[in-house]
Prior knowledge:
The protein has helices at residues 9-13, 17-21, 27-40, 56-65, 80-86, 113-122, 148-151, 157-163, 177-180, 196-207, 234-237, 243-247, 261-271, 286-301, 314-333, 344-347, 351-354, 361-366, 368-388, 394-401, 414-422, 427-435, 442-458, 480-491; strands at residues 70-73, 94-98, 128-132, 137-141, 153-155, 173-175, 184-189, 210-213, 216-219, 224-230, 251-254, 406-407, 462-464, 469-472, 474-475, 478-479. The chain is α/β, with parallel strands linked by helices.
Amino acid sequence: MGQEFPQDLAGLKASPFHEIHAKGRSVKDEMRQNLQVLLSRKERLFPGIIGYDDTVTPQIVNAVLSKHNMILLGLRGQAKSRILRSLPNLLDEWIPEVAGCEIHDSPYSPLCSSCRQRLTTMGDRLPVRFLHRRQRYVEKLATPDVTIADVIGDIDPIRAAKGGLDLSDEMTIHYGLVPRANRGIFALNELPDLAGKIQVGLLNLMQEGDVQIKGYPLRLPLDLVVVFSANPEDYTARGKIITPLKDRIGSEIRTHYPATVEEGMAITRQEAWLGRDSRLPCNIPVFVAEVVEQIAFSARKSPHIDKRSGVSQRLPITCMENTVSNAERRALLHQEKSVVPRVGDIYAAIPSLTGKLELEYEGELRGADTIARELIRTAIGEVFERHADGEEFRHIVDWFDLGGRLELPNDLPSAECLEQFRGIQGLLEKADRILGVGRHSSDQRIAGAEFILEGLAARKKISRSEDRIFCAAEKQGESYFENLGANRKKWN
């Protein structure tokens, strides 16, 4: 444990812990008092949670200060589970318990009959151990197969037989998850998926502190904080929260997706596996990171995506990881010295997108791959407009209009890419402007040049085929190549 703790009740009474715990402070009071200290110190309450400082976090603070049980309500991928798992930080680091007790009874006032008997028999010799705050958090994912025995408990006939006890004896009970969370936090994810009769049992335990296990009435005034998470879609799609239980949840807190692309990028940068143990250094251009994040924002506005289901923040995280992996694969194949993802690598990350998109009927008809490609093109176009900032790309468009054609396979080595880009008037110079002030490596310049080409294609200034052939834009049903052929006959 890293420090010396009393081993029995006598030692506990003589320790500094006695003054704190002898008064029987509840878990909700404990969290409230610790939160007051953190607020007065202006400490960050939920490290790693980005974008909630002015919205969700104040509501959670209010709920804890009010000593409420709470539910986090929001679409998938909105950090609900992470917030719940951060709540133990508001608990005391260590608390004493009766050694060997299943429900973490207080040595001063135990609930279960076994611990009461031991206290009566042993007195100050009652063995004590200390419980860390992380051990006081119990989490359960609600599924239709969860039983009342899982949540509340059941009679254990084997225990009765071994101890020679009658089945009506309280000591034959095998406690479920909620009693085992006594003096801590019990978290239930996806509450609507829990069967109605289990919700009723949970309601009775929260409100009255008594339960019935196989007809055995048991008064069990547990001391715990109960927190839930739920997806609004679940209320109608798979189940519902019974009204009496909703009524007894003190605070309903709505979560949300990042409000800005910058917030989303910060989350993705924090969560994606980018600090790899590869022998190649990785440098991700900012416009690549923006396009990856913009895909999620474009998907949330797309008429082809089910708004009720939402677009998880996991989408840009896995997309970024796949994008970097494709760039890493190319660098290893060609023995290059660094990994610099390009915008084209995002198309190779489509498998990380399609499984996270719940499509509407029209989207299903068009296919997930087609919708994913459209989202990528839309995102590229929007990010390109922001980075172009009024830049003129007429010379590059003219190069294609005059018959220029560029084949750009995704695995093309950097040296060959650079050689092809040098043949397009002004392309690398524009790439340097996009990249900003400073000296840029050839890989960065290639990424910048490809971004310009993809951006012009997304804005339909030039054409781009699915096999990454860039050419003149189509106009009025005819390509510029056809017009150019006619013009050349006139010139000749």
